[in-house]
Amino acid sequence: MQALKVLVIVMGVAIFAILAAIVVTVVQRVGGGTATTSKGFGDVRLTVPEGCTLAQVEVAEGRLVLRLDGPPGRDCQQAVVLDSESGEVLGRITAAPGP
């Protein structure tokens, strides 16, 4: 009889552990990935023309898009695209007057 009690307790603990693992897996998949958080990319020094200001920041598909603004003629009208994981500048889009 004692062995049967031990067996029932062990089976109950095993069932609970398996259910907990299933719940954790479902939560991670529904949450869009792992439960770990991303490390920041630290300090990034972005060089902008003198007199320019940061007008807007947007996050899109793993990228940061910074829109600069300022006085005309100083190349301030531009967007800078950064990788949100590494902080690397992926490119710049500069608005220039047309013909």
Description:
- The structure is a single chain.
- This protein has one helix spanning 2-30, and strands spanning 53-60, 63-69, 78-83, 89-94.
- The chain has a 4-stranded antiparallel beta sheet, with no helix packed on it.
- The chain is rod-shaped.
- A hairpin with a 2-residue loop joins strand 1 (53-60) and strand 2.
- It folds into 2 domains: 1-36; 39-99, no CATH class.
- With 99 residues, the chain is an alpha+beta fold.
- It starts with a helix and ends in a 5-residue tail after the last strand.
- The protein contains 1 helix and 4 strands, in the order H-E-E-E-E.
- The mean pLDDT is 83.
User: What's the arrangement of strands in the largest beta sheet?
Assistant: 1-2-3-4
Ends apart, CA distance between termini: 94 Å
Major beta sheet summary: 4 strands, antiparallel
Instruction: Write the element-wise H/E pattern from the N-terminal end onward.
Output: HEEEE
Assign a percent range to the helix content.
25-40%
- Counted by DSSP, the helix tally is 1
Poorly predicted regions:
none
What is the assembly state of the chains in this entry? single chain
Q: How does the overall form come out from the CA principal axes?
A: rod-shaped
Beta-strand residue percentage: 25-35%
Overall tally of domains: 2
Tell me the Rg in angstroms. Answer: 27 Å
- Please give the number of β-strands: 4
Mean pLDDT: 83
Structural class: alpha+beta
